[in-house]
Write a structure and sequence with these properties.
By secondary structure, the protein is α+β, with helices and mostly antiparallel strands. The protein contains ten helices and twelve strands.
Amino acid sequence: MARIWDIDCDGILGPEELLDRVQGKVDGRDPESLAECAADLRALANDRSFVLDAFHKELEGFWSGNRDNAHQPQSIQLANTRDFFLRANIWLPIEKGERTEQFQKRLYSYELAHDHNFSFLTVGYFGLGYETDIFEYEWGRCVGYQGETAGCRFLGRYRLNPGRVMMYRGGRDIHVQYTPADVSVSVNLMGRNSDVNWDQQYIFDPETDRLVGGAGDLVSNRLYLIECAQHVGNGETAGILADLVRTFPCDKSKAMALRSLDRLLPEEAERARAGASAKVRTLAQLPLISGNYARSYSGA
């Protein structure tokens, strides 16, 4: 399951020093080697100035027009190297009011069961921290279609207390985050991994143990774009889709291209289908998950 550490630590690490240590400890081919850095991340949480310094820089970036944070507005980039980066996430209590609650739940993905296609460490930095339900499943057993049984196993509810370190394993751990009682901040240590180009993230319904949507990852968004092609495309689009079916290194993308091609230019789709693998032809018959479910999520 997701690993949890409550570490007594008086030492202090700065973000650059931590990333130097990580570079020497973590094997990019073994995401779970991130666990070797749990104590280092705990020491980073003892540095009480670096997150606020980054927040100030973020604010100044708005005024100068130099803001380059491409992540969600509640995320702040802290430090990065070629292989790893640190970011802070701000978690706010939900304000009362139906429309406000729905918007903020979407923004923070509260009450939304999701996995990740990468492993990462997180530490409670400020505030009481959010509570999270943790589940476990096996990504490799899921095809990735709407309503598919996920095989989730509930493992318990935990709080990301100040100083507590947790590790989530890509493609294994699912969590549901709940609104914190006060403003809270967590700090994440994450690796840059090419697998995010090919491994899909999902949204789950734990009550029914089903996959219900994509998590706005690169794969889900790519599938959505390919799906849209059938509605807005022309002959040139059909040629691009046929090329995707023949050459693209992602079977789900090939399958979605074949589905779009079926609607856009059926005769071209038949030629593409003849050259496609049995797996791609099978996937093309399933309601593959695409897009970003969280954007249309209305809360529970």
